[in-house]
Amino acid sequence: MVKVGRWVIFVFVITVVFTLTHIPQVNMPSDLGVGNFDKILHAGAYGVLAFVGIWAVGFGRGWRGYVGLAMMLAGLGVVDELTQPWVGRTCGVDDWAANVVGIVVVLGVVRVAGGWGRGKEK
């Protein structure tokens, strides 16, 4: 059974990530783009979204649940990137790729740590 409170937290975390990624560039610290630190932030933010998302839907959903969540979050990442120019930020495939890396790494670790096939497919 899906717990409503978990979904509320998941939506809240999505809102926080979208808010942070839509702060106009002129208001952001300039050292965030040094080296690949920006990409680490992207991967970290979407890794957190992946973890909270799988926690919201339930860890025992099977591989289809993980793939579905990964696709949904990757799509969300596309929307996130495409809307950033509206607030003076840049849209980049490399940023989206970093988002996807964060999603895949976290979901992979959670899935392996939780064991394949735990729970029943719905």
Indicate the topology.
Elements: H1 4-21, H2 37-57, H3 63-83, H4 93-114
Helix pairs in contact: 1-2, 2-3, 2-4, 3-4
Descriptive overview:
With 122 residues, this protein is mostly helical. It has one domain (8-21, 36-114). It has helices spanning 4-21, 37-57, 63-83, 93-114.
Give descriptors for this structure.
122 residues, mainly alpha
- Unreliable stretches (pLDDT < 50, length at least 5) are none
Number of strands: 0
* SS-derived structural category: mainly alpha
Tally of distinct domains: 1
Major β-sheet profile: none
Number of helices: 4
User: Into which percent range does the helicity of residues fall?
Assistant: 55-70%
SSE topology string: HHHH
Question: Whole-number average pLDDT?
Answer: 85
- Subunit arrangement of the protein: single chain
Evaluate the radius of gyration.
15 Å
Shape category: globular
C-alpha end-to-end distance:
11 Å
Strand content: under 5%
Question: Can you summarize this structure?
Answer:
By secondary structure, this protein is mainly α. The protein has four helices and no strands.
